[in-house]
Amino acid sequence: MSFKKNKYTVIRQAISKDLAAFIANYFCMQKQVYDTCKTARYFSPFETILGYYETEKDQIPGAYASYGNIVMETLMLKCQPGMEKATGLKLYSLCTNL
């Protein structure tokens, strides 16, 4: 599959099953912590540091979301060399937490 022709490519097995499971569990736990803290009124209902639920105006209403998550930023850096090889492009990370 040609990235230049199709403007996308699929990179199979870009991460291991163990890493995928770790990330999925991490997000499930982060959502649980967010829900617990919100229910217990541990922080303001307007606080988004642990995430938020998308509103009716967002892409997936009711979905839990987390902007600039450190795990995802780290995964992006880990996958960058493989994405550069598959696309033939030099990619620049735009870490949202820096």
What would a concise description of this structure say?
The protein has 3 helices and 2 strands. With 98 residues, the chain is mainly α.
The major β-sheet equals: 2 strands, antiparallel
Q: From N to C, what is the helix and strand string? A: HHEEH
> What radius of gyration results from the CA coordinates?
17 Å
The number of distinct structural domains comes to 2
Structural class: mainly alpha
Q: What overall geometry do the principal axes of the alpha carbons give? A: elongated
The portion of residues forming beta strands comes to under 5%
Between the first and last Cα atoms, what is the distance in angstroms?
34 Å
Tell me the helix content: 40-55%
Side by side, the strands of the main sheet go 1-2
Poorly predicted ranges: none
Q: Give average pLDDT, whole number.
A: 91
Strand element count: 2
Determine the number of helices (DSSP H or I, runs of at least 4 residues). Answer: 3
Structure description:
The structure is a single chain. The protein is mostly helical. It folds into 2 domains: 14-67; 70-98, no CATH class. Helices cover 46% and strands 4% of the residues. The protein has 3 helices and 2 strands. The chain has helices at residues 3-6, 17-39, 70-87; strands at 52-53, 64-65. The longest helix is centred in the first third of the chain and has 23 residues, at 17-39. It is elongated, with a radius of gyration of 17 Å. The chain starts with a helix and ends in an 11-residue tail after the last helix. The model has no long low-confidence stretch (mean pLDDT 91).
